[in-house]
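Q: What does the assembly look like in three dimensions?
Context provided by user:
Components: two
Sequences:
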Amino acid sequence: MSTTGQTFWIAPDLGFAPPEAGGLTPDWVGGLARFMRAGKPKLASLPVRRILDALDRASRAWLADSPRRRDVVALIAQATGMSQPMVTRAIVHEMESSLGPDLEAAMVNELGNPECLDGFVPNPRLRGETMAVGPELVGGIVSANIPALPHLTVMRSLLTKSPCIVKTAAAEPHFLPAYARSLFEVDPEVGRHVAVVGFGHEHAALLEAFLEHLDFLIAYGGPEAMAALRSRVGPGVRTLFHGHRLGFCLLARDAPSDPGLAGNVALDTVLFDQEACLAPHVAFVEADFDTACVLAQQVAREMDRLHDDYPLGHRPLAWKLSVRHALDEAAMDPGRRTRVFPAGSVERGVVLVQELARFEASPLGRFLRVVPVESLEHALDIVRPLSGLLQNASIAASPDRRRTLAAALAALGVSRVCPPGNMGTPSMMWHHDGQGCLAAMVRFTDWEVRRSPPLPNKNS
Amino acid sequence: MTDTPFQRLTRFIRDREGSFDEAAADLFRFQWERNPAYRALCQARGIGPDSLTDSRQIPAVATRFFKRTTLFAGLPGQAAASFSTSGTSGGPSNKGRSYFSAAGLDLMETGIVANARAMLFPDVERTHILVLAPSPQAAPEMIMAWGMDRLIRHFGTPESGFLVGPQGLDVPGLLGKLAEFTRQDAPVTLIGASFGFVNLLEGLAKKGFSIRLPKGSRTMDAGGYKGRSRVLTRAELQRWLSDVFGIQPGLMVNLLGMTELASQLYDDTIAATAAGKTPHGLKQNPHWTRTRVVDPATLADVPDGQEGVLLHLDLANLDTPMAVLTDDVGVMHARGFEVLGRVGADDSRGCSLTVDELTRGNA
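A: Here is the predicted structure of the complete assembly.
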């Protein structure tokens, strides 16, 4: 399945020859893109229900333990450094949230009637009918941070009846080819419209060939990668860029007493080793320093406990050094009170209680800052300068307060609000980065059957 | 009259009077007492002069803090000199600064001379020294220029000098001096930054220039090629030095120097060759320094042969923290240590925000 330095998947009966042993070439990638694009009418002719059913069955295939899943888990763990139990959890979470009913609900949420992709469907509000048409060819450039997340790009493409070619991340090239294969196995007519390629940043000619035939690009990555891509995609290509974002917690003084709070905050921090854009960097606590320390100690204890089941995998020296820098930076500022609570040891996780005047990011891994604040409104002031980067916030507060805070967060651009413990597990209906991603991919045609009233007679 | 730490450290470095642990404890107390930011770090780690039992407990300060905090054990206004870092780890705008008192400069000089005598000139009293760097007058911010000037004062001839001016390296001047020294059969020592050598050799090799410098001529290149466009392995540099200048492999030494350290760490090439032994090319610690390879999260030593981050203890660092945690990846071996490069940024992130990006966004 892989050639020198490059991975790929194409359906075995596609009728397009796989690359030669030497690896991918720009000609091959360009040819594949043209070939996949030519398959659009065939994919568009399949009922959307059939596509939903195929995606549902592919997700279910990954929910169950299997030799294939075990193999892929081991490969992903080796490539990313994430522990095998955590990789398994990521796959299970992603698949649990992408079963048929979730996918259908997401379509209804964004498109109204999913069958608008099959043809015109009545639209009572329009007093007419609406049809939606997806792109001719979607290109995906996915990241390695959350195992199994790349399948979202495949699902969005197929749900909008668009063939797709997805470029895997060099750091994790294993999941997507295996997922594409399983989709092909459950329904070849659907799975045939997915191709997976993999090549490094240094292959500029391959990237150019990849981008040339797309009319829609979904890309994940950091600011430099996003800026570079923006400058390379053609003017007619529509895009969905998922750049870097962050999460945080707001824990109010008036929150109903919750013995599970520390465990939930710990879970949000530990899940996927904080690599998701949904993971919290900071928990703002409406409390004095000592009370915040009590909570921090409990969170550290819970992180320690979670480590037994979901150990932190291998982390690079750069991460270890950034943990050291974060700890020492706090210690070397005599003007601010700080206290460190390791989750057993700093290698297993850290909760750092710190008085902060401005937002400081976490080195991630499992590193949470607990920041005592006079009021959560002050916390909002601290995060306000980052409003373009805020993704997710958990709130523990009384119902009235929660509503007020959620509205303030919405105004700051936070795209998701949830209770502690749910930060890492969004529903399929979540507006990722605050956008309707399926709606952004299609073009609607509205057929208005209502006749306009006749123009008034000029002479009457 | 009682001794000052400066006097005791001078005797330790110059005359080996006392033990490393005693001298380190002495210096630690001095720095702990005079540097509030450093004291705060020590307090966070639960280490003070009275609880110290082993020099390895002395809290190390990461190089990045030299960029953000004034880590000077003297009083404001007491600094006799300050040097800025090359800024390679965070871009040109992220330069650090190291301050030195007059005593601190003296102690640094004592270390430079003792170390050069052992590692660069074990077989030489005085020689021609040509420096491929600006003079301290032209580049007062550059610690390397200051150190090389000290080498010329202690080991150089009147014909020695600096060859980088406002227009860059004076290549005709250099070649003229090399030709003259060769005619006199007088050995010459070329010293400069590693990347400076690379640029020079590349230019000369292109022109087909080569010269056989007199026997005993040697080179000392400092640093690596941090973030520079041209990447060259040590073996390639040595081949070029041999082809272009005719330097013998046993007389090419590399030096690890940092603005945050008063001392430099040479490899053993020249010292071993002079002693009739086979050099292994690993970096050596003079007796007033110690280098550890650590896991930066826990600060525990990693086993020999495994990669970790270099942590240096330098008792010639009078004014700034003597224990420095670097961004350098290294490996400890039985006979010295090896520098492999910089700790790389983790590029495996997807949609999660990294600290550096956030810092940049807020800068």
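Follow-up: The first helix of chain B runs from residue 5 to 15.
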